[in-house]
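Sample 1 of the test manifest.
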Amino acid sequence: MVLAGQAPAKGILFFAPEMFWDFVLVALLFILVYVMIRRANAGLPIPRIRKIAGLEAIDEAIGRATEMGRPVHFTPGMSGFGPETYAALATLSYVAKTAAQYDTRLIVTNRQPTVHPVTSEIVRQAYLEAGRPDAFNQDDVRYLSDWQFGYTSAVLGIFRREKPAANLMFGYWMAEALILGEAGAEAGCIQVGANTNVFQIHFFIVTCDYTLIGEEQFAASAYLSKEPMLTGTVVAQDMVKILIGLLVLAGSVWATVAGNADKLVKFLSQ
Amino acid sequence: MTAEQWGAIAGSICIIMAWSYLFKESDIYYFAEHLFVGLTVARGLTYTFENQLKPLVLKDMAEKGQWTLVIPVVIGLLIYCWFFKGLRWVARITMGFWIGYGAGYSLGFSPPVYLKQVFDTFTPFIKDGRFNFGGVLYFLVVITALMYFLFTVKKESGVLKYGSMFGRYALMVAFGSAYGSITMAYLSLVIGKLQVIFKDALHLVK
């Protein structure tokens, strides 16, 4: 009886019934991604990704560090494993490989203890792929502190002591965004910042040379690798964005004609 | 003096040491920085032990008998194989779990906000028989910001080009507004620190 009482209500076992249309939207995204990947694999044409200045600037930043003989600093952000961190890790792979090819020292700092070994493995693998496994230095991939401002203080110390020529800040950022951006600018770094936090991204816009706003960061892996298969996933996401735009238009027209869009909202909430 | 007062004095000294950077970089500042970083690492270790490991072993396992928790504990401990050259590959099992869990968690808990956000943008263009300027502007900003975030659609001319441009400017206005309000909030943090010095430690302010 106790077990029966604790059992979830019918329909809630897999997803909440009022989220049926959310499920349809996500399922549609999955299908579109699958179709686009199949198209890419079949060699069918896939649209190119528009120029994203912040990602173009990564090569420029590493090149500058190489010319100056100073290191590049990269950080995958403050959060644990989540969409922003995955995007940051994909970018790290590219940055590490490029740094290895240019024989430029790369310093990676981590706040999350779980992300730290993953970044280390990514950098190690990138150096291996670049044919320079001997150049990988484990001590340059660092775990600093899991406390937000403890980590920030430690990075400020690295800026001051090791004077990187480039500072690449990807992932998710919070209140430390301004402190790090300002310190990087003061240290004379060329800076590329990426953030999805709308309450903090403006601090990157004012302190960094290039900023990736929100979704731009998620297109990074496809943009940098230029692989048609990855580009296909971005195409699929664009299609869903267009669909959402049309839904916003339909809802607003409905609200204008009927006075409000309650009926449409009710229908889509079941 | 009470422990709180000693704490306020120690805190005030640390604040002044950290702020000495504004005058000049010095050993005082470096000491404050290293002290702070060290303290946060120690705090992290203590916090993890007291709030995660101890309750897990003493409460969940020993008291409640949830011995199945041994499985994630063992998977978690495998990460320490990372320190041994020959066993480094074993640590990748743990990393795989973390990465998979993160992806699953994001996928499972992010979608619920999708349509709710879309519903909030449904706005009538005409309200009470009058042109709803605010609503139309809101609608335009949403649509054009979406245009800006289209990456694979050609935007060299026409509606998409100018819409995308408008969306970018709209984003900048929003960011500017947030910049102002959050900078003000940061200034209030400075006031908080001044309170520690002048109120809690020196008792000059009531």
